[in-house]
Amino acid sequence: MRAASGCGYGSHLQQSAGGGFLSSAVVPPGGGSGAASTEDPRGPNMASDGIADTAVRVACDVGGTFTDICILNERSGRMHVAKVPTTADPIEGVLAGITAGGVALKDMILFSHGTTLATNALITRRFPPAVMITTSGFRDVIEIRRGNRDDLWDTYKEMAKPYIRRRDRLVVEERVDYAGTVVVPLDEAGAREVATIIKRRGVKTVAICFANAYMNPANERRMRDILADIVPDAVASLSSDIMPEIFEHERFSTTVANAVLAPVVGSYARRLESRMHDGGYQEDVLLLHSGGGVMTTRMAEQFAARLAASGIAAGAIASRFVAEAAGFTNSIGLDMGGTSTDVSLCDHGTLRVTKEWFVEYGYPICFPSIEVLTIGAGGGSLAWIDAANSLRNGPQSAGSSPGPACYGRGGTSATNCDANVVLGRLSDRLAGGKVSLDRALATRALESGVAGPLGMSVEDAALAVLKVANANMADAVRLLSIRRGYDPRDFALVAFGGAGPLHGAALARDLSIPVVLVPPNPGVTSALGCLLVDIQHDVTKMYLSNVADVSIDYLEESFRELEIEGRERLRNEGVSDDRMVFQRKIDMRYLGQWRALSTTVASPVTSLDEAVAAFHAEHGREHNYSRPDAPVEIYRLSVIATGLTTKAAFAEFELIEEAAVPDATRSVRFDELPQAIETPVYDRDRLKAGMKVVGPAMIDQLDSTILVPPGVTAEVDRSLTIVMRIPLA
Fold it and tell me: To bridge 118 with a disulfide, which of 307, 343, 459, 468 should be the other Cys (CB 3.0-4.6 Å)?
């Protein structure tokens, strides 16, 4: 999962006012407890820009250290950003960020919110006590798991414990067979005894997980009714509602995660909506979920586990938007912060989606989620030497306290941030002089931790540290691209996060990626993703059948049932029928296999020939082989039910023919050169659409720094995204 940190090369800063696609306000450095202050001379309401005006859309991304705010004026298309420290109660940070942006709640017409609340609750296990009720004999399914391990070679490494302890997993007699026939009716006396135990323990959170309930939910629903009679205020999650699919462990695990998160998410969502309505906000609070859509607070509690990947989904969505605005439908997102890097992939405008992911290994959550690969590589990642005297980088991090050595807060270990300072790639003054970086402390850390032990100069040690970090990130990109059958040469790399633009060009060169895109405000780009989504629900149904035996009429009827359920969910969200869109998908696999691939089908379904052909083609790309002569079976049907939200247009600017003028120079060491050279430094706020910068050069801005290597051309496009063209051998 993505973790925010104060080491992301300006990640604890907030943009000052500037012209263009994104205008901004200023935040206090150093991660203080107060909200960001506005330094725009026009005053906190910024009326001359029309920022704090009616028709304002606000997106918020709450990270572990900072809360990012994007404010979009619907009429002008201009963006304003703010960043404040995340507070113990995240709601206070959200409201402080909105205030720092100079916006009144009554002027907002939309509020969309990504949060790490659910992720952190699972990691820290800070949620109310919960009970699981299951079929007799299935009590230990979620503890046995699949018998696999995250480290195959360490048999003594203990796996994380289930979210619900064994003593809180209660059983009843009941049984449904594979076809959905009730073989053993629910033992109602035993069910009442279990409900009485739950009442006596004072537990209000319950997961009901019965064997084969995906085929027939009758026993689960009867158990829920009995529980409601005895414990009226209990909140129950039924596996047949949460994930009506085969495989007990995956279904039980998803339901348990949903159950334990329901009170956490529900309480937070209700309190946030109440506070915002009290302040004058009139519309729904929308919460970003793992699938790349949003839910209202009314549905967030029912499907709480969908928020467990909320934060990382926002960055992937924003990455796709930035790439498409620049004219690229194929893109790889590189979100590098202080502690970690998130990698995502978009193929022909479609983000990759996975249907099995986890916060802790062994406990899958099977709601559809945008596929994001996270590794421990960030600005604060520590450089260290292993027992074989080899240089390593991360996943350990200096964090925001004490932070990199150059911050002067007591850190002594060398980090990526320190290496960039030593090489001159980071200025010794950030945020317009509000933050100082001590090069002497960075040099000392690299000398003692890397250069001395390996017998090299400090500059060479700094280069080595960054090369190892870049190699780690390049490997992550390969896993999500080449391993999936995608050629990185066909993609643009979107580099964002506080640290991403410093490393983007080097990664692109390693991977033969021809173009690097740097959005206008890299440090708060993830928050932008929250403004770009629709209300979305995924409804699924098991459908095990050989394609040759499928009844098209029955298949069409099954899809209609799923669409009815999707329509009902959207109506509960307040979406009108004319704003609803439904997309049908079929998961297929070769007969006898267990891995399935998803293909889109038309509505109504008249033939499966095109879907089968698409499956063979996708299987060839994904797994490097296909068998067009082999029998294919359908595994699962799904419908993506989307409630369209009205979206504002973003501002674009006329291209000008004006030379970019550097504001200063500094000595910078580049990978391609044998020694440091005096390098022009540009202020990004002064770069207008159409201007070009030819490397070697550095481009400084308040929330990031962009490295333009020798031979690379960086051009500002109409949306003020910087497009770097990488010459490849």
Answer: 307
